[in-house]
Amino acid sequence: MKLVVTSNTSLSKEILPFLLENLSKSGWALLQIDEEDEELNYKMLSLSILIGQSLGDSVGYHYLKSSGSNEHLVAHSEGISNQDGIIPYFALCCIKPAESGGETRLFDGRIAAQKVINNSKLEGVKIEYSALAYPELKVIYPLVVNDFDGVLRYRSKVITNKVICSGEISEEEMYKLVDQILEESIIVSHNWQRGDILFVNNMITLHDRLPFIGKRVLIRVRYNDNLNVKQRY
Which of 73, 87, 96, 142 fits a 20 to 30 Å CA distance from 65? Predict the structure, then answer.
């Protein structure tokens, strides 16, 4: 599910049909731009903003820069603490990949949901989500929401989670079971290259990020994120 983008690639005839089909069916799609392009940063961000007109009403973006991380960024639905609902789509643009590690993994939330439903221990579990940046915003979700005939809505254990209904299961066992279900629901583990733009359907997938060594620079682009709007369409 990769499309190589050149100066001759048509946005309307090639890129958008490719993206929309794969985002709908598989939950992700990858564009690859020539990594030697001197204007790569500008072109990746501009293309992501142009494509956003077909994915939402607004766009916001941040540069993500790090000199390495020993931490495994936990699995989550992007924007799960937003009171307006999760972010429908987002993109990650790779300016500089890590020396090693840092793969972004995507999980099929529909497959995971069925596994949760079939595990009686997880019945009735609800979690209240908030974020350190916006502690006043709190949202409660059951593990499985009714979208798409059932999809997992979840963030692995962090200090801003609060399990408010755990049935007859302990919190530790609950997190262990759901995280194991996610490991069984991986659809892609993406090893970044300069020039990659990974588009993600956040409504049907979850994602995490593995530890990495060396400096890494990405641009994170979010569509319909009311807390981070840089441009409205």
Answer: 87
Structure tokens at 196: 């990659």
Q: Quick one: DSSP state of residue 123?
A: T
Q: Is the dihedral angle over the CA atoms 121, 88, 139, 66 positive or is it negative?
A: positive
Q: What one-letter code names the amino acid at 40?
A: L
**pLDDT of res. 165:** 85
pLDDT digits (tens, 9 = 90+) for 25-39: 999 999 999 767 678
Which pLDDT belongs to residue 103?
98
pLDDT digits (tens, 9 = 90+) for 173-222: 999 999 999 999 999 999 999 999 999 999 999 999 999 999 999 999 99
Could you give the C-alpha distances from 133 to 62, 74, 81, 128, 201, in angstroms and in order? 15, 17, 10, 16, 24
- pLDDT at residue 221, rounded to an integer: 97
Give strand ranges (E) for the chain. Answer: 2-5, 28-33, 58-69, 73-76, 89-96, 100-101, 104-108, 126-129, 139-142, 144-145, 151-152, 161-165, 186-190, 196-201, 205-209, 212-223, 231-232
Distance CA 130, CA 119 (A): 26
Tell me the pairing of strands 2-5 and 28-33: parallel
Q: Give the position of tokens 């019945």.
A: 123
Query: What is the C-alpha separation between 84 and 65, in angstroms, rounded?
Result: 27
Bridge partners of 93, per DSSP, are 197, 219
pTM over 0.90: yes
Amino acid identity at 115: K
Structure tokens at 46: 């501009």
